[in-house]
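Why show two proteins at once? Because comparison is the fastest way to build intuition. When a single record is shown, students tend to memorize it. When two are placed side by side, the eye starts asking what differs. So, the first record is below.
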Amino acid sequence: MSIDEQVLPYPIPNDAALKPPAEWAELRGTCPVAHVELPSGDRARLLTRYEDVRQVLADPRFTRQLNAPDAARLSADGGGVFNSEMAMIIPDSGEEHQRWRRLVSKWFTAKRMNAMRPAMAGIAENLIDEMVERGAPGDLKASLGFPLPVYVICDMLGVPAEDRDRFSYWSDTLLNLTRYGKDETEAAQAAFFQYMTDLLAGKRAEPGEDLLSELIAAGGPENGGLNDLQILVTGMALLVAGHETTANMIGKMVSMLLADRGRWEALLADRSLIRTTVEEALRLDANSGFGLPRYLKEGTEVSGVELPKGTTVICSMAAANRDESAFEAAGEFDLTRSPNPHLAFGAGAHSCLGQALARTELQVVLEVLLRRLPTLELAVPEAELERVEGLAVGGLRTVPVRW
């Protein structure tokens, strides 16, 4: 049976930690709007071509309303970050969505991120000191990749340092596809919700110089601000999004550079390549997770295929980023590639709010690692790196390194 007649399991199984499943190229070539079955057993359509993914992410008819009665459930229990009622509290479109983005995006400008660079570099230095003190081999993900973005986003939100370690478990349950049961997911989300409720009450009593205090100070909707529940959910969303994806990306990026030693050596020889290298690692990330699901509230067509109202579509940015029609030598890692209009942060009105933060963290990590640990290398063969399974984000379980 040809691939365009099959219903593929999704996420598409793939053992290779850093390489894409073979199906991506085949789908882009012959079946750009594929039938897939999600972990819930529900059906959806998968997009893998660059132009299709970019078009759909920018099209307001494709919404985030994945709690609609006929939307596909992503996980078997119907919970998780995409299908939850909570996901709907942040406005999805129109003037309300623009207002939300305006209020929050002030904290994520490139200018503000540049001002935070020295503090980020200091955090990275301390974490590397601790890893070196523990001795080789170390786990770069646990020692540096995971804590750095958590510390940074907690500082921005005004979360006390001693509470930082709780968030990894809470955010994993929010990103659940198949790892956790419904009861466990609901209990963790309730604990997270209660924590944020208490945190915000404290900030109302004693405001700090942080994003959540500023959102409270802006006043409610009648003053052009957000209501209490929107502020709470914004805090939860930023804590999850602000650390989970970047924590995983640090481990994957460094692994991609060390798996082919020539890439690491080229950066050691020319640090001016750090910025374009980060973009290329984002583009070539073959293990970025689930992709972006969208719910179609009126019928349309994509790549000549009719999609009826009520269709759930999965946009695979990672597959689109390897489209030969959009990138020359799309499968090659080119440290000098510029321009690099990859879709790792999405596109259109919902493109990732924290992309300047993620880029800055990735650049700073590379700068500090190259300076501090020029002899860094993987402590296991690339083939032994293992993927994170069962969550909506992609990553590596561990990144064993020595120096």
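Second record. Ask yourself what differs from the first in the token line.
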Amino acid sequence: MAAAAIRNTLKIGMIPADGIGREVLPAAQRTLEALGSSIPKPEFIPLLAGWDLFQKTGTALPEETIRTLKEECDGAMFGAVSSPSHKVAGYSSPIVALRKHMDLYANIRPVASVPGQDGKQINMVIVRENTECLYVKQEEVTTLPDGTKKAIAIRQITERASSRIGRMAFELALKRGQEREINPSASFWKGPPKVTIIHKSNVLSATDGLFRETVRSVKESDEARYSSILLEEQIVDSMVYRLFREPEIFDVTVAPNLYGDIISDGAAALVGSLGLVPSLNAGDSFAMGEPVHGSAPDIEGQGIANPIATIRSTALLLSHLGHTEQAARINQAVNSVLLEGRFLTPDLGGKSKTDEVIDAILKKL
């Protein structure tokens, strides 16, 4: 990933959006502030988006939010968005729209168990193509002659999008391999870096077939650079089975949009909660951290939302901006709190409040 230029200040767009996004996003600001002079002085720019905003104004993603991100911000943090399960005229998910407007073509989702904890060992990254597949949202419903309805959705896979997400996956695998060489004890993974292509080209031979062949061609066209990387494939349903049976076999996986979305939520179950899993929406010139969990309306307003996914997403954004040491410090603090087990939110079997978990992590920093 290309790091942004180091500046005297870090201007971070803050988009809480809906539900518990408004409750966990303050954790990102407090974490950055707690790092003090070890990073450029953070400046936070509040921005609007979301379903609640749409209900009030008729707009889910204001043009001002897009303009500010493009012209003023070094990066951004996004909370969570609520989206109705039925079609609402004029509404489109603002997070999907943001990914397209900012050309955030990669959704990078690390899923890792905490070193020292019992259970299956997992330390993988899911690299999800972020701009197409079924998420192009080209759907229509027609009425058949017998009065019943038929719905059709267009699935788009392009060579351009598949090529650049493939390159992102290979570059990430190289980076992880280099980090393991520097600090072998930081990961249980002992072999060479590996990229696994996730597809269903045995059925979807045109779309998934193009994705599979294009990602493979990225390695073949730059074999000198990627010669150290093992390349494997998994049919998506087989991959899900193996993910739960033997998660330790995966290093970096690369997948079309829908598969990546589903796989990353499933992988989160292996580490205990969606509330632990971060993501980074990344392009060639901008990045936005985003916890994988949704807006969780069932616990909204109770002060018990898990802030760890947001804090880890903050670390991902920092690393992308070139502050890798500070990002590592954040993750070490999170792991320490999880290992101690004194401050855990209800999703992890504890009774702590959101702010109590944030306070415990910041004390470790």
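One difference worth noting in the second protein: The CA atoms of residues 195 and 252 lie 5 Å apart.
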